[in-house]
Write a structure and sequence with these properties.
By secondary structure, the chain is of the alpha/beta class. The protein has twelve helices and 14 strands. It is globular and about 55 Å long. The protein binds zinc ion (ZN). Zinc ion binds next to loops.
Length: 340
């Protein structure tokens, strides 16, 4: 019998602090659409990235990409995936004429410390408390390093890896972090992971066509008692329902080709188990109510700021209901090696 998973629900936030306004959504969705429709012209057919089976049920077509649900493990994934070299160029920021760079929302310096305080510190505190220890934290795909900045502030030794040059520069030069350029692969994994007590993938695994390869490297090269921490888009959620209802207004969550995977409670367990890990803690939260109000307002051209603000003032209460019903669009999963 597997050990009981400790569950936590809801994380209070105010997306208005991050400038996620109706005009942000309109601009982001039109540019995301433009990029996705370029990428969808050349794709390869994918099987389930979790269980490798090929039987699925169609779920939605968004900007030319087909989301399906795996009949075997319930994972939600994109079945027509751009070739790996194109995706790498997208994230390394070497593709010409990209309408919206993947990291655009994350490299706004003036919001950096707001993001650290409101988003990253609570996550670090959660993991630290759940594990009951500190040590070396290695963040794979660390972006501009806000999670590492928060971890360092809380007494962790930190190291990050990233492939987007602009984000590496921001992390190193502006925020003084040890962030290096590099992919987690068979050649680098031993060096990258050898000291890690925690290996984290925050908003990373949904972007890669073969997430199991990365977790297998942690299995192979990580320390015996290494903990893995994942932040992932989850399914089913109110956000996915809204994305499917308004497929022309998608600016996040069910967003191709950025998000090739949405994990379910079942598929994340299968995913971890295949690399001999098992979840010990799961934190359920999301931005579903914001997604719902923002999408409907932008599609309707609704401009009554006073009423919108009155609705968004209720965000934490309404989102709490979605979180507790496990209809939220994100989760953090802490996992340890299976003992047998
Ligand atoms: Zn599957």
């Amino acid at each position: 019998m597997s050990a009981r998973i400790q569950e936590r629900f809801s994380k209070s936030m105010d997306m208005r602090k991050l400038n996620r306004s109706v005009s942000w959504r309109l601009s982001a969705s039109s540019r995301r659409k433009e990029d996705a429709e370029r990428f969808c012209r050349e794709t390869v057919r994918a099987v389930c990235p979790v269980c490798a089976k090929d039987k699925s049920t169609p779920q939605a077509i968004i900007y030319g990409f087909q989301y399906v649900i795996c009949k075997s493990c319930t994972h939600v994934y994109v079945r027509n995936v751009p070739p790996l070299d194109r995706l790498k160029a997208f994230y390394e920021n070497t593709l010409a004429k990209v309408a919206m760079r993947p990291s655009e929302d994350l490299t706004q310096k003036k919001l950096y410390f707001t993001r650290v305080k409101d988003i990253s510190l609570p996550k670090i505190d959660y993991v630290t408390k759940s594990l009951g220890k500190k040590g070396v934290w290695v963040d794979i795909g660390c972006g501009s390093g806000e999670l590492l900045y928060a971890a360092k502030k809380r007494g962790w030794k930190t190291l990050g890896y990233e492939i987007d040059p602009q984000e590496i520069t921001l992390a190193k030069d502006v925020f003084g972090l040890d962030v290096r350029r590099g992919y987690l692969d068979e050649d680098n994994a031993a060096t990258m992971l050898k000291d890690a007590d925690v290996v984290s993938f925050f908003s990373v695994l949904e972007h890669v066509p073969a997430p199991s390869k990365l977790l297998n490297l942690v299995k192979k090269y990580g320390k015996k008692n290494v903990a893995v921490v994942l932040e992932l888009p989850r399914h089913p959620s109110v956000s996915a329902f809204v994305n499917m209802a308004f497929p022309k207004a998608v600016a996040r969550h069910m967003l191709p080709p950025n998000h090739l995977s949405l994990f379910t409670d079942q598929s994340v367990k299968t995913f971890l188990s295949k690399s001999s890990f098992a979840p010990s803690h799961i934190w359920y939260y999301g931005q579903d109510f914001y997604e719902l109000i923002g999408t409907v307002a932008s599609m309707a051209g609704y401009k009554d700021e006073k009423t919108l603000n009155a609705l968004l003032d209720q965000f934490n209460d309404v989102q709490n209901i979605f979180d507790k019903s496990k209809l939220c669009d994100e989760f953090i999963v802490i996992a340890k090696r299976k003992t047998r």
